[in-house]
Structures are given as structure tokens and as C-alpha cells.
What does this fold into?
Amino acid sequence: MISLDFQVDEDALAEDLESRPTEANTAAVEQTYFVMPVRFAVGETELLAYPGVYESWRPQPLVGFSTHLVGSILAVSPGETKRCYIADGGHLDLARSEWTMRITASLLKRTESVPTNELLTEARAFRERVREFLLERVPGMGRHESWQVWFPG
It folds into this structure.
């Protein structure tokens, strides 16, 4: 079972809105705006855990994490490995066999396997929740120059 979700941090959102994220450059939005607690677990393994600091929910920039996770999953071919970086340190290595994705969390030294299609479905649903959240709470983000790159279709 895959758990991939975020919690709204109202204080962080209010601070971001003061900095006009709709006018920020792409890299800034992907790396420093909308940093909210994110949980990504496969079974009992919390893939974003930072031992001794974050046991499950770990702050991540929603746009960058959601879009780069989907992009990494789509980019990895059978027999390849792609890396998805985690804000504040560490990374997830996504290694694909024909129908299975092995996810290794660098800070945990743990690997979990999931069906590739299930992981892609969950990651896309997560990215869609991020898109809907931003359109609802920061409607001007839909006019950002990178919006269609982050949230195609």
C-alpha cells in the first residue's frame, strides 16, 4: 500500500503569499515555496523519514517534489534507475524492472518494491491534489509561466 499525501501549513502558506509566488522564478517555486509536511510511505516504510528528525511527515516543496517524483517515474525505463532528490537531504532511487519499481530511501538504507503502475497512479494523484490546492488557495499560480510544465493537461 502506498501513502502519498500532504498537510497544509497555514503559516507557511501565508508567508509564501506575502512573497508573491505567482511572480517568482521557476526554480524558486520548485524549491522554496509551498513547503508543507509530506508523507510518502510504502507499507510500514516511511520513505521520507529523516531518522531522529522526521519520522514520517517531512516538509517538502509541494511543486518541486510532486512534479519531480512523477517525472522521475515516467523517465525510468526497465533496467534503469532515476534519482528523485528530497529537500533537506537524501534522495529516492527509483529502479525499474519490467512491472515493478524498487524505491530506495538513501537516509534509511531501505528498499521497498511496488507495482510501477500503482506508484505512477498514486504520484499523479498526489500531483493533482497539489495542483487543485494551489488553484484553490493561490489562483494566480495557474498563470505562472511554468504551470503547464508542472501540471500538464
Q: What stands out?
A: Residues 39 and 57 are 5 Å apart (CA to CA). The mean pLDDT is 97.
